[in-house]
Amino acid sequence: MPAPASHNESAELKALDLAHHLPAQADYQLLEDLGGSRIITHAEGCVITDIDGKSLLDGMAGLWCVNVGYGRTELAEVAYQQMLELPYYNTFFKTATEPAIRLAAKIADKMSEGNPDLKHVFFNSSGSEANDTVLRLVRHYWTLKGQPERNVIISRRNAYHGSTVAGMSLGGMSFMHAQGGPLVPGIEHVRQPYMFNEGFGEDPIAFADACVKDIEDRILSVGPNKIAAFIGEPVQGAGGVIIPPETYWPKVDALCRKYGILLICDEVICGFGRLGQWFGHQHYGVKPDIIAMAKGLSSGYLPISAVGVSGAIVEVLKTGGDFVHGYTYSGHPTAAAVALRNIEIMEREDLITRTRDVTGPYLAKALQRLAVHPLVGEVRSLGLIGAVEIVAEKGTSTRFKGAEGTAGPLVRDICIKNGLMVRGIRDSIVMCPPLIISEAEIDQLVSTIETSLNEAEPQLRAL
Fold first, then answer.
1. What region does 421 belong to: left with phi over 0, alpha with psi -120 to 50, or beta?
2. What are φ and ψ of residue 350, in 5° steps?
3. Nearest to 128 by CA among 46, 78, 75, 184
4. How confident is the model at residue 50 (pLDDT cuts 50, 70, 90)?
5. Alpha helices in 98-247 (DSSP H)
């Protein structure tokens, strides 16, 4: 393990960070007030270490993505070998590369489990780009079908589908909509299946039915002949790890079939084992027409994303000449080679089954230790993604009035101080550790959250 940087090296990098670097989704004045970013220098397994030598258990797998953990030498070696052979080539000139072709075939194999028509893949570099591709592809498809008026996409309030203009428009986060508008037109937002916040104490089946009815009501109010697709994450990640009732997704699927609407599953977070299946929609037994994927595709080792497309859609695309869409790095051979090996690691180590049968249930059981905490209104998890809801009054969904929407970040900062990287979203703590996490590390994760809640309680009650 590298030695911590000297005081001078650390100070120099933090000064350069403040002077020149604009991190993603950051309050730049706050960063300046704090003296700069935390600079991560190395990582191994499930542990990250900063420039000052402080180690943290990474309860977020980077940014929902480092599924096979850090320090995988063979991923570095496959990237090196591919760079020596063919570091880059594009797919614009009726060309392709072996890594992209083999990766597409491997992804198709995983997608086809339970859905044999889902067998084509379009490559991009990020989840945001994948959802841009989805938007253009869906509208192009309906135009080729002779129904150009069918261009409205239904999404959900508080959904996250990326940070590009198209991704942000597809998403339903009002604070994102307030920056960089106007939004892409033709996107409608409906109720999210966030039971703790919006259906506290209700019967789960009745709550799911009400959420699905809201989708149908919007379809009917806009006009079924104008609706192109419905998009949603199997489990909403950045929205707050919102796990819908088990009946929700099958009924959404049936609703889309009823009205002839395309079903899009955003698998950017849920894909590649997170829920204990290769893709999150497979847990719910639904059959999307299109899926977006990224993050766990390469475990974050190199930027790559993909869109899975059904054969029925591709047959229509074949009638339209060029699909004039794509990116310089679509099917990047080095990124594809790394992603392919990443999937092979998951297969070899059976990380999907392990998540479903061992570590996922262990996390669920461990989180139950927090359920009795006076600040905890609910704990929930599915596979290796979970959340802890913070409340002011036990047995209710009442938030702290002086800190409404900020209790999560407050507890998050204490967790980080105590050696655990988690995310605070509004009044919750969310987690998404690497799929290689051990039972002992899960215990450490939960114990650190408990310690941090104890530390935060006097501050929250004093507000």
1. beta
2. 50, 45
3. 184
4. very high
5. 98-111, 127-144, 165-170, 174-177, 195-198, 204-222
